[in-house]
Design brief:
about 500 residues, alpha/beta, TIM Barrel, 2 domains, eight-stranded parallel β-barrel, binds alpha-L-arabinofuranose
């Protein structure tokens, strides 16, 4: 009797140890598709994102390009399979008058980019340049309309210009400027940060403005409908979402946005590369807050839209630090370290796991601005750790989300705790299963047991992105310091996958 009790006790202790890090995946279930559009990107007329980033101009440059757009960037982004690209802002969008950016370039007016560095914008990169670039990238454009300083007529004309096939003054103008067929732009933002740089509006006022703008945006073509996205809340402003959901009729609304940046403190953001473990911890706290934000904004949306017809569109997210020393403070140019890889891995897992409501998102921003996937310096281009996470995770695009239960140990410093592990899993159209696993903890590796139920798994392969220090990053001299490699420190036995997860790492498994 005593022997049996002892045995049970020992089994219990062993189970508890194992349970420290345990994932159960129900591989034969899954009700939602992970919309590929949550892997979207964002390109604003800000600093060196467009000019001296994507666009080097058709003139005097040694940098290989197609109609002025860098070929190396196009190739890199094609490998990411970027599903959509948001443009022209951001705050810039509410200062942008699209008619300034069409027609012969030498006749386009210049404006001052008042939000970003006060530089002169010559409008040489406009609607045609952007939409043709999207065709080159094989990505869907997401246009941000000007509500703050624009007019209903202006936005309605833009829709007609890019989307209308029949005879109209706007289609004639488009044809005169060299494009006969419309581009068929589906995604439209109606203003940006209307609570701030978009006009400092109250949500009640913005909701009324939205209704007016949305009413005049008609662009049905074939069976496709326009997808209108309301300017959403900043992080935890739940009242904003509540007022919008309450006051905007469902037939005028396809998406509600949300912006959330992982910033330590707006008054003291810290260096992008030279930061302490405590600062890293705080950044991760901000990133993981996305889980709570998505849950609480979704709960409000559920109240008004129980059928989940309206998407939550997180169209700005990412890490935000001090600019690199010696660069224009208005250009938001920052390096990108393993900390950013952790933000990306954790955030994308959150989006995947909320596939029922989060159906679109945009990392801020693509090139040379904030948490960029690509950095350029003259002819050189590097891929950041964030790029590699986006590339590793693209296997989840349009795959079926598999429900997962995660028990994790903590990442603990000075008595403060965060969950060390985060994970998501999906099954693609070919029947392959993918598990993405992130360990944000520094220190010792984490042993994890993954219980894959209902899959009959027989083969597993894994890639890892990791580096010795959280501050590690790629540079123009060492562009490949951080890149994904094959990882083999795991055992698949029956339906159990036992894996040793190194500190600060992102792993993606392919299971068959
Ligand atoms: O992404 C940079 C800026 O951050 C955007 O222009 C604005 O929408 C946000 O405040």
């Amino acid at each position: 009797m005593l022997k049996n009790t002892l045995l049970l006790l020992l089994i219990g202790i062993a189970a508890n140890c194992l349970a420290q890090n345990q994932i159960i995946i129900n591989a034969d279930q899954g009700a939602y598709t992970i919309n590929k559009h949550i892997y979207g990107h964002f390109a604003e007329h800000l600093g060196r994102c467009i000019y001296d980033g994507f666009y080097v101009g058709e003139g005097n440059t040694k940098i290989p390009n197609t109609n002025g757009v860098r070929n190396d960037i196009v190739d890199a982004l094609k490998k990411l399979k970027i599903p959509n690209l948001r443009w022209p802002g951001g705050c810039f969008a509410d200062t942008y008058h699209w008619k300034d950016g069409i027609g012969p370039k030498d006749q386009r007016p210049t404006i001052v980019n008042t939000w970003w560095g006060g530089v002169t914008e010559d409008n040489s990169f406009g609607t045609h340049e952007f939409l043709n670039m999207c065709e080159l990238l094989g990505t869907e454009p997401y246009l941000s309309g000007n509500v703050g300083s624009g007019t209903v007529q202006e936005l309605s004309d833009w829709v007609q210009y890019v989307d209308f096939k029949g005879v109209s003054p706007m289609s004639d103008l488009r044809a005169k400027n060299g494009r006969t067929d419309p581009w068929k732009v589906r995604f439209w933002g109606i203003g940006n940060e209307a609570w701030g740089c978009g006009g400092h509006m109250r949500p009640e006022y913005y909701a009324d403005e939205y209704r007016k703008y949305a009413t005049f945006m008609n662009a049905s073509w074939g069976n496709e409908r326009i997808f209108r996205i309301a300017s959403g809340a900043s992080s935890g402003d739940y009242n904003w979402t509540e007022v919008l959901m309450k006051n905007i009729p469902r037939n005028l609304l396809e998406g509600v946005a949300l912006h959330h940046y992982s910033v330590i403190d707006w008054g003291n953001k810290s260096s992008a590369t030279d930061f302490t473990t405590q600062q890293y911890f705080t950044t991760m706290q901000r990133a993981i807050q996305m889980e709570e934000l998505v849950n609480r904004h979704s709960t409000i949306m559920d109240k008004y839209d129980p059928d989940k017809r309206v998407a939550l569109v997180v169209d700005e997210w990412g890490g935000w630090y001090d600019v690199e020393p010696g660069t224009n403070p208005g250009f938001l140019f920052q390096q990108n370290t393993m900390r950013d890889a952790m933000i990306a891995g954790v955030t994308l897992n959150i989006f995947n796991n909320h596939a029922d409501r989060v159906r679109m998102a945009n990392l801020a921003q693509t090139v040379n601005v904030l948490q960029a996937v690509v950095l350029t310096e003259g002819e050189k281009m590097i891929l950041t750790p964030t790029y590699h996470v986006m590339e590793m995770y693209n296997v989840h695009q349009d795959a079926t989300l598999l429900p997962l239960d995660l028990k994790t140990g903590d990442f603990e410093i000075d008595g403060q705790k965060l969950p060390a592990l985060s994970a998501s899993a999906s099954r693609d159209a070919a029947g392959k299963m993918h598990i993405s696993l992130v360990n944000i903890a520094t220190g010792a590796p984490q042993e994890v047991i993954i219980d894959i139920r209902g899959a009959n798994a027989s083969k597993a392969a894994c890639r890892i992105l990791t580096s010795a220090k959280i501050q590690d990053h790629n540079t123009f001299d060492h562009p490949d310091k951080i890149k994904p490699v094959k990882y083999e420190d795991f055992v698949l036995s029956g339906d159990k996958l036992k894996v040793k997860v190194p500190p600060i790492s992102v792993l993606v498994f392919e299971i068959q």
